[in-house]
Write a structure and sequence with these properties.
Elements (H helix, E strand, L loop, with lengths): L1 E5 L2 E5 L7 H8 L18 E4 L2 E4 L12 E3 L1 H4 L6 H8 L9 H14 L5 H7 L9 H15 L18 H4 L8
Parallel strand pairs: 1-5
Antiparallel strand pairs: 1-2, 3-4, 3-5
Pfam families: Fer2, Fer2_2
Protein name: (2Fe-2S)-binding protein
Keywords: 2Fe-2S, Iron, Iron-sulfur, Metal-binding, Oxidoreductase
């Protein structure tokens, strides 16, 4: 059994130690914000934070994470108030949206380490693939999030509307079988 911390909660996975973190998060913990993209570590859709580093969760096994601290998109900010999430929404960054959670996680790790990244530093840190090609909007959102975090800019947009995960089951009408 592998023990580590996910989103500030201790977890113990009763899975094969060779299980990639991606599948432990998605299948055992129901943290589906971490996406499966390529499975080879190339796309970055599965990016999470592990002990302050951006890590592709498809490439690391749960045995390798014993005693470590993992943060997923679900815990970045419950109300979507993190500067990166706010800048993403304000800049209309997502197109299809599939890569966004991995991009946001990589960007949040970058901004923890570098409060004023250049475009070259952003390009180096965000090696994720966006199939829609929104890279200029991604760069601008990261620059804006950095300005907000430094107190040089303010985002007037409220967090995007959403449903509290606890209320999600009540939001979907029950299906009744046809007779």
């Amino acid at each position: 059994m592998t023990k580590f911390t996910v989103n500030n909660r201790p977890v113990e996975y009763r899975m094969d130690g060779d299980t990639p973190l991606l599948w432990a998060l998605r299948d055992a913990s129901n943290l589906t914000g971490t996406k499966y993209g390529c499975g080879t570590g190339d796309c970055g859709a599965c990016m999470v934070e592990v002990d302050g580093e951006a890590i592709r969760s498809c490439l690391v096994t749960i045995d390798e994470l014993e005693g470590r601290f993992i943060t997923t998109i679900e815990a970045l900010s419950r109300d979507r108030s993190h500067p990166v999430q706010q800048a993403w929404a304000a800049g209309n960054v997502p197109q299809c949206g599939f890569c966004q959670s991995g991009m946001i996680m990589a960007a949040s790790v970058l901004l923890k380490k570098n409060k004023n990244p250049s475009n070259d530093e952003i390009d180096e840190a965000i090696a994720n693939i966006c199939r829609c090609g929104t890279y200029p909007r991604i760069r601008e959102a990261i620059q804006r999030a950095a300005r907000v975090a430094r107190g040089e800019d303010v985002l007037s947009a409220a967090p995007p509307p959403g449903i509290d995960p606890a209320d999600a089951a009540d939001a979907v009408p029950a299906l009744t079988p046809k007779k």
